[in-house]
Amino acid sequence: MKQYPYTDKKDTRSGFGAGMTELGRTNPDVVTLCADLVGSLKIDTFIQENPERFFQCGISEANMIGVSAGLAITGKIPFATTFANFGSSRVFDQVRQAVAYSNKNVKIAVSHAGLTLGEDGATHQVLEDLAMMKALPNMTVINPCDYNQTKAATIASAAYEGPVYLRFGRPVIPVFIPEDMPFEIGKAITLNEGTDVSIFATGHLVWEALQACQMLEEEGISAEIINIHTIKPLDTEAILASVQKTGCCVSAEEHQVNGGLGESIAHTLITNYLAPQEFVGVKDTFGESGTPDELMTKYGLKAANIVEAAKKAIARKTK
Q1: Residue at which a domain ends, from 175, 202, 237
Q2: CA–CA–CA angle 100, 101, 102 (5° rounding)
Q3: What b/e readout covers 257-276, taking b as 16+ CB neighbours within 10 angstroms?
Q4: Do 211 and 153 fall into the same domain?
Q5: Residues with Cβ within 8 Å of residue 202, at least 6 apart in sequence
Q6: Are residues 67 and 194 in the same domain?
Q7: Does a structural domain hold residue 278?
Q8: How many Å apart are CA 230 and CA 254, to the nearest integer?
Q9: Where in the numbering of this chain does the Transketolase-like pyrimidine-binding domain appear (predicted)?
């Protein structure tokens, strides 16, 4: 198994902040809007260095989306920032009508996604946002896996023409993606070559997939690990090439199974190449208060759950 050692742990939202700092220094068209959550989105340095390019919208997310659309019309590249729950379900109508429908160059950058928001509980733990956003025509959906990849995704989003939903999280996790690893929107990254099962993971579950890969290797099972950082457009070429080699797959995501990455992969398989697939994700339920690790364990999103799913997929392949 290819090794991805780490010497640090950081939250992915800090990777977004680092990306915005760099964009503030290199791209004068980038502007930032926030719904009263500057500290949580880690955009303090951008604001300090570019106060005239920051718009505090207060607790008025729908208005923030409208203002962002207006700024995009003037040629600016607006990043509208808030929590994932508020940047998806709360403003879905505004995103649909003012951004996606007219294909505005607006970047919706959201933190505190998924169960790992933790103690704030079910009302804030959005688990359906990827499904909502990928359903919108013209919307690109990105869910990076660690600090370095989130920074790279932020910079890439600014250079990409069109609406982007960029999702990241609250907890500190290992920084394992090399800083110089290329990032291209819509292009999956193979982190480990394997022959027995393909594991397609996104966001925080990429690290869990790598741990699962090591556990499987100890049992003589060769797993291919592919980082699907872009949910839409999906890299169907990479998915099909991997599954045609291994014969089965697992999808792993910190999101509802309904409407998430796994369903997109299933659609790809059923229309191109039939193969067994198992799903690691939240099974049609809301979350609850708890630590990120407690919730990941209770809702079956840990490396051990990926290992179990991989064995099930392999067993179905050999029947």
Answers
A1: 175
A2: 95
A3: bebbbbbbbeebbeeeeebb
A4: no
A5: 143, 145, 227, 228, 229, 231, 252, 253, 254, 261
A6: no
A7: yes
A8: 14
A9: 10-175
Q: What value does the mean pLDDT take over residues 172-184?
A: 95
Mean pLDDT (whole number) for 251-267: 98
61 is catalytic: yes
Q: What percent of the chain has pLDDT over 90?
A: 96
Taking a C-beta distance cutoff of 8 angstroms, is the pair 22, 155 a contact? yes
Q: Please give the residue range of the domain that contains residue 261.
A: 189-316
Report the predicted TM-score, pTM, of the whole model to 2 decimal places: 0.96
DSSP assignment of 239-267: HHHHHHHHS-EEEEEEEESTTSHHHHHHH
Token pair for residue 163?
């609406």
Number of domains in the chain: 2
196 shares a domain with 156: no
Q: Which of 22, 49, 52, 61 is catalytic?
A: 61
The CATH code of the domain that includes 274 is: 3.40.50.920
